């Protein structure tokens, strides 16, 4: 019997090669998409779980109820470590960390490489030795018990160690951080895995912190909410109980009465770092899309199976007459379907594995996906495949096994009910609506990304280099300027506390004519005389800061958005008030984008700085001609002026592309393009199946028409009307849905909706539909009508 | 063995009832060879389908060995198809995706016959019909007469008591038709009860008894 089963399935496969290949392709696509996104979700959920104790590890975060909406801050003050968590009996281990920051505009430190060059390294932390007890970190060199207990010691990752000490044996050697601080290597640890939120490249021992930070009493600090506190709870300890014990920690801290510490589980740090559900919703939408694609593929499978079963109906009729039971026929069909889905799943695994680079490109990530070692995922996929097989085989198997042998043997089974609106048609119409919607949205996103990339920023972003410098000694800017501007390749140089796309200083101001208690949040920037010309900002009213007017250091320049808010008709000489101090306006700069083009232009006010460089600041240079040459020139001159401080010149366009909005929209665009291609392919297969079904059902009718002298054209028209009505339905559903997405799409600036996006999408879908019909019609057109009419 | 009394088969449409069979009374004894004749649309095939439990009469009684076989459960009906009757069709209705051997073997599989016994039974029939050399061919590779021989082999391999043939020679040239009829005649002589529907006067004569249907009514029932 089993052999009979499989010979049957095999012969069916051989006999209906085209059908089987189309149907399997359909399932393979559906499953591949499903597997891709299952792996992505499984990957996102796997974050931090490599820690053997992850279930007992929590980050102590800070809920600030005095901001609206409530701010769930991931950071916490160091006093948690010394005065809060250490006393809780449920706590096994406490860990205090802080990210090493090189200044306000970025975090990281420079290391001196063996060849003398500087390596900028992000993701460094101050850390206690308990990090080795809390997290599962593998030491390559050194000893877990005392790696970070002494001041002036550093533990470095394997990768960093290889760069700093290519000859190996890093232990005990000296490393100079930021050209200034010598520390000795106390341990080398294996790099943190990719799916870790904490990817520390180096760890400086916490006892070093009070010395280098100049804050010896930091352990008493309740208000510097910039540290990371982790705790490892004892086995079986209840985190809610701990929460209730620590919640009143801030009650005596002035200005922090409305802040509350709470435990956030390590396993949720990645998908919901701020106790918020944005990413969970994002993952849910992705899973929904992936499941939807799989469902579309299953619908196709059902449609195609039924279409094909008309061909097999005779066979089923015969089998019933010679003694096969209904159950046997249904079982065989079901087994065939399950076999198909299992084969498709296996193929889809390979397709998915091969498509991971594509997924990485879409997401703009570099995740190392492998399916083969993820046993739970593989089991999940095969269970899903089995379920899909049973579900999509059930309906056709019941339909097919119920065929009346007398009717099918006379070829009568599909002779009536030709024009009713069947479930099949509705499903195919729904598929078309979804593809059309996806296509239009892809076009809209495509336009939007181009719009953002090409939007006029309001300043000249070309030929600019910038660097952050952080000297401890004061340096008059004119010295730097003279040194650098002696080279004709450099057109302008300026320094400021922020530059467009890098850095942000907030503050509240009031203004002449403002109502009582009326204030507005502004972005402020402390600039020198050269900032406006360097960035080619245009003045709308008044003038730039000038050394000819000594009173300018008490003045300010506002942007047009600010002018609009302040409601002044004659801005020059009007005053704004920052922290109670008045600043007369000397000029109004035309609006430009200081931040992401995704956001509206903020109220922006520039103040004059002292023209002396001190502490962390940003230097911007506008060059003419060759960038490499300019970069080398400026680096050399700056090296002479600031011999003790490392710096690195960055291309300004890099900062522009760091604008988070751009990769986000590019990912969105690619994601939609991906899904629109997939849904289009699947709905084409669906349409193919439906038309195949129609044609099969109407073979005889078409044969009669041909004998009666009907032309191919009129048969074409006959079949087309059905598809055209489905297309009409798709337009009615897909277009408004796409318009809705456009309207609700976040972003302050959008390009007006282009009609072309709609026309092109509809045309694309229509062409594909008509090509599918044409294939079938041509097949009929060349066939012999006598064949269709035989056996009556 | 087989008894039909007052069998009606009709279709109701809006204003009238169309009879396909009307008040058919018929008795078939074991070992009989019955030919049902009649013009197109006279109800021959419907009558055969009712006898073969593929169709239900609208009214009347039908019993096999004095047991009523109307409104049977699916399971019992399948049992009759497996063990009691075999079918032959005008269009042969072989399963195209199966070889000659597999076509003949299939009913035995449904019957649950063991593999070794199946081999022997199929080999026997192949031998008897001189088709051993053709056992691995597919139906399309055979002539019409040979296909019908396979059809007969498939119908009788399960050793049914009753063989139902719906125009078995309708698609065949006369020489091949005669060969098929000779085969049926031999089977009958060996004891198998046969009911055939035919258009062909000459082939009807192979039967021991001829029933003539006209507009669903038995006009004549005579020994040949």
Structural class of chain A: alpha+beta
Which protein chains are joined by the largest interface, and how many residues does each one contribute?
A-B, 25 and 29 residues
Largest sheet of chain A: 11 strands, mixed
**What topology, given as strand order, has the largest sheet of chain B?**
6-7-8-3-9-10
Structural class of chain B: alpha/beta
Beta content of chain B: 25-35%
Helix content of chain B: 25-40%
Low-confidence stretches of chain B: none
Give the amount of beta strand of chain A, in percent.
15-25%
* Shape, per Cα inertia axes of chain B: globular
The number of domains of chain B: 1
Classify the helix fraction of chain A into a percent range.
40-55%
Continuous helix count of chain A: 22
Number of strands of chain A: 26
The chain-level mean pLDDT of chain A equals: 84
**Which word captures the global form of chain A?**
globular
Q: How is this structure best summarized?
A:
Chain A is an alpha+beta fold and about 800 residues long. Helices cover about 45% and strands about 15% of the residues of chain A.
Describe, in plain words, how this protein is organized in 3D.
The complex is a heterodimer of chains A (792) and B (224). Chain A has four domains: 1-47 and 275-413, no CATH class; 57-270, no CATH class; 423-457 and 659-792, no CATH class; 464-658, no CATH class. Chain A is of the alpha+beta class and 792 residues long. The two termini of chain A are 34 Å apart. Chain A is built from 22 helices and 26 strands. The longest helix of chain A is centred in the middle third of the chain and has 44 residues, at 278-321. In chain A, a hairpin with an 8-residue loop joins strand 17 (505-511) and strand 18 (520-527). Chain B has 224 residues and is an alpha/beta fold. Chain B has a single domain, classed as P-loop containing nucleotide triphosphate hydrolases (Rossmann fold, 3-Layer(aba) Sandwich). Helices cover 34% and strands 29% of the residues of chain B. Chain B has seven helices and ten strands. Chain B has helices at 44-51, 74-83, 100-111, 115-128, 144-156, 174-189, 201-204, and strands at residues 2-12, 17-28, 33-37, 59-64, 67-68, 85-89, 162-166, 193-198, 209-214, 217-223. Chain B has a six-stranded mixed sheet, with helices on both faces. In chain B, helix 5 (144-156) runs parallel beside helix 6 (174-189). The two termini of chain B are 21 Å apart. The mean pLDDT of chain B is 92.
């Amino acid at each position: 019997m089993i052999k009979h089963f499989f010979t049957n399935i095999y012969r069916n496969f051989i006999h209906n090669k085209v059908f089987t290949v189309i149907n399997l392709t359909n399932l393979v696509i559906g499953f591949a998409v499903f597997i891709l996104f299952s792996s992505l979700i499984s990957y996102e959920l796997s974050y931090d779980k490599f820690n053997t104790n992850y279930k007992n590890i929590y980050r102590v975060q800070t809920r600030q109820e005095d901001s609206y909406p409530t701010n769930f801050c991931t950071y916490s003050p160091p006093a948690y470590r010394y005065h809060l968590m250490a006393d809780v009996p449920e706590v096994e281990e406490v860990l205090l960390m802080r990210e090493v920051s090189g200044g306000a505009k970025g975090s990281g430190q420079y290391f001196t490489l063996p060849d003398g060059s500087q390596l900028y390294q992000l993701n460094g932390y101050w850390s206690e030795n308990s990090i080795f007890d809390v997290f599962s970190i593998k030491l390559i060199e050194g000893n877990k018990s005392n790696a970070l207990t002494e001041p002036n010691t550093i533990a470095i990752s394997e990768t960093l160690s290889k760069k700093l000490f290519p000859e190996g044996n890093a232990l005990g050697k000296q490393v100079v951080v930021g050209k200034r601080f010598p520390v000795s290597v106390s341990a080398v640890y294996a790099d943190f895995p990719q799916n870790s939120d904490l990817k520390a490249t180096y760890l400086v021992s916490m006892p070093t912190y009070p010395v280098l930070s100049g804050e010896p009493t930091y352990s008493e600090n309740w208000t510097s909410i910039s540290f990371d506190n982790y705790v490892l709870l004892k086995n079986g300890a209840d985190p809610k109980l701990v929460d209730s014990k620590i919640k009143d920690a801030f009650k005596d801290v002035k200005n922090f009465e409305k802040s509350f510490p709470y435990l956030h589980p390590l396993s949720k740090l990645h998908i919901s770092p701020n106790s918020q559900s944005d990413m969970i919703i994002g993952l849910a939408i992705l899973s929904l899309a992936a499941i939807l694609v799989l469902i579309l593929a299953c619908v196709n499978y059902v449609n195609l199976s039924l279409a094909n079963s008309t061909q097999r109906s005779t066979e089923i009729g015969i089998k019933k007459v010679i003694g096969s039971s209904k159950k046997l026929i249904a079982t065989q069909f079901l087994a065939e379907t399950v076999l198909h889905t299992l084969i498709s799943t296996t193929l889809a695994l390979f397709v998915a594995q091969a498509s991971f680079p594509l997924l990485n490109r879409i997401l703009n990530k570099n995740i190392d996906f492998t399916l083969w070692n993820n046993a739970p995922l593989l089991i999940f996929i095969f269970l899903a495949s089995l379920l899909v097989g049973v579900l999509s085989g059930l309906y056709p198997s019941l339909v097919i096994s119920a065929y009346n042998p007398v009717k099918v043997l006379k070829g009568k089974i599909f002779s009536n009910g030709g024009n009713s609106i069947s479930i099949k048609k509705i499903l195919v119409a729904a598929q078309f609506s979804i593809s059309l919607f996806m296509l239009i949205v892809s076009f809209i996103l495509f336009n939007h990304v181009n719009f953002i990339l090409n939007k006029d920023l309001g300043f000249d972003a070309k030929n600019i280099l910038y660097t952050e410098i952080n000297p401890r000694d004061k340096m008059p800017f004119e010295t730097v300027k003279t040194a650098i501007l002696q080279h004709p390749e450099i057109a302008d140089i300026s320094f400021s506390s922020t530059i467009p796309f890098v850095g942000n200083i907030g503050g509240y101001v009031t203004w002449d004519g403002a109502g009582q208690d009326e204030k507005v949040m502004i972005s402020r920037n402390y600039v020198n005389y050269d900032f406006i010309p360097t960035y080619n900002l245009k003045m709308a009213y008044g003038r730039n800061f000038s050394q000819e007017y000594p009173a300018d250091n008490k003045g300010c320049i506002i942007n047009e958005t600010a002018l609009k808010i302040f409601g002044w008709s004659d801005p020059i000489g009007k005053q704004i008030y920052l922290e109670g101090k008045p600043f007369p306006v000397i000029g109004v700069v035309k609006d430009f984008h200081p931040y992401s083009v995704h956001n509206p232009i903020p109220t922006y006010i520039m103040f004059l700085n002292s023209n002396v460089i001190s502490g962390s600041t940003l230097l911007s240079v506008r060059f003419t001609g060759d960038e490499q040459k300019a970069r080398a020139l400026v680096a050399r001159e700056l090296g002479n002026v600031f011999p003790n401080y490392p710096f690195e010149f960055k291309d300004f366009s890099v900062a522009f592309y760091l604008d988070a909005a751009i990769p986000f929209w590019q990912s969105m665009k690619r994601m939609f393009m991906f899904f629109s291609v997939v849904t289009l392919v699947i709905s084409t297969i669906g349409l193919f199946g439906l038309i195949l079904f129609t044609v099969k059902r109407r073979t005889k009718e078409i044969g009669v028409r041909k004998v009666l002298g009907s032309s191919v054209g009129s048969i074409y028209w006959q079949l087309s009307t059905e598809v055209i009505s489905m297309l009409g339905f798709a337009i009615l559903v897909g277009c408004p849905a796409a318009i809705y997405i456009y309207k609700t799409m976040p972003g302050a600036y959008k390009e007006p909706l282009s009609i072309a996006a709609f026309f092109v999408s509809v045309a694309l879908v229509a062409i594909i539909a008509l090509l599918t019909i044409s294939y079938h019609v041509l097949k009929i057109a060349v066939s012999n009508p006598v064949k269709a009419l035989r056996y009556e | 063995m087989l008894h039909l009394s007052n069998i009606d088969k009709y279709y109701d449409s809006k204003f009238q009832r169309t009879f396909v069979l009307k008040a058919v009374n018929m008795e078939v004894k074991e070992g009989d060879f019955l030919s049902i004749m009649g013009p197109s649309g006279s109800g021959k095939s419907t009558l055969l389908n009712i006898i073969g439990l593929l169709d239900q009469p609208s009214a009347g009684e039908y019993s096999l060995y004095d047991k009523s076989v109307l409104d049977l459960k699916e399971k019992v009906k399948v049992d009759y198809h497996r063990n009691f009757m075999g079918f032959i069709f005008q269009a042969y209705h072989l399963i195209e995706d199966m070889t000659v051997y597999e076509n003949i073997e299939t009913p035995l599989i449904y019957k649950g016959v063991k593999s070794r016994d199946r081999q022997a039974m199929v080999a026997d029939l192949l031998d008897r019909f001189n088709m051993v050399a053709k056992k691995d061919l597919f139906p399309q590779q055979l002539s019409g007469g040979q296909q019908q021989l396979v059809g007969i082999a498939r119908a009788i391999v399960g050793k049914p008591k009753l063989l139902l043939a719906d125009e078995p020679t309708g698609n065949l040239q006369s020489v091949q038709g005669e060969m098929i009829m000779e085969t049926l005649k031999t089977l009958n002589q060996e004891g198998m009860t046969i009911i055939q529907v035919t258009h062909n006067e000459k082939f009807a004569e192979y039967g021991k008894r001829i029933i003539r249907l006209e507009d669903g009514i038995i006009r004549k029932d005579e020994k040949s």
